[in-house]
Amino acid sequence: MNNTLSINCRYQHASGFKLDVVMNATDTVTAICGSSGSGKTTLLSLIAGLAIPESGFICLGDQVLVDTTKSIFVTPERRQIGVLFQENRLFPHLKVKANIEYGNRRRGDDQVCVAKLIKTLEIQHVLGRYPGSLSGGQQQRVALARAIASGPRLLLLDEPLTAVEESLREQISTYIERVVEEFQIPTLLVSHNRLLVEQIAQGVFTIENGFLRADSINSNCYSQPCCC
Ligand SMILES: Nc1ncnc2c1ncn2[C@@H]1O[C@H](COP(=O)(O)OP(=O)(O)OP(=O)(O)O)[C@@H](O)[C@H]1O
């Protein structure tokens, strides 16, 4: 399946901040680097459908998610995009199993095997517990499971290590690497953590003051100096 992410769009936030992005991501994992306030989260919000561009298009493979010239806007729940935010956003009133099942509620051929997902992330022993009783690292692993359980065509990781305590970051990086590789999910990663970027990304794009021009063919190799 063609999962190239093609973006050519402009957006203006109520604060006056402007985003101008032209990019083509074909690598399995592409990292977006940039200083604080450069627009990384805003870009992920546009891709997820949580913000609407003023003009332009966003395509995932053959599917047009947004095209302002044709008034096309696919709503977030129909985009088949999984998102993992800095803070895990798990449902506190649902046990771990129900949180994951929520992610897995869509029926279809592209459903992932939840048992395999649970095994890969080693969360079998916490399925009957509430998120509030778990460690930060366990919560982030469950949130990752929920994001992947729906069988997304694209996974967006927004600073997935920021809320995790320092001593657990390497461990969580390894779990992220494992699932992305095992389930072969095209991923866009925003992270200041150089280790995670080097561990999982094949390409690195740089955004500066809301401006990004990048193509996987010309992207930095992760072995070269990275801006993160
Ligand atoms: N809630 C908000 N209130 C005011 N301005 C905002 C808000 N959210 C975003 N912005 C504006 O949008 C710009 C981009 O924000 P964004 O969160 O996308 O940056 P970022 O690169 O993800 O930053 P960080 O690395 O600090 O998370 C900010 O510089 C700011 O001007």
Automatic annotation (TrEMBL):
Keywords assigned by UniProt, alphabetized: ATP-binding, Nucleotide-binding
Listed Pfam families: ABC_tran
Top-level taxon of the source organism: Bacteria
Keyword Nucleotide-binding in record: yes
Database matches in InterPro entries: AAA+_ATPase, ABC_transporter-like_ATP-bd, ABC_transporter-like_CS, Molybdenum_import_ModC, P-loop_NTPase
Any GO MF annotation of the entry: ATP binding
Residue intervals of the ABC transporter domain: 2-227
Protein name stated in the entry: Sulfate/thiosulfate import ATP-binding protein CysA
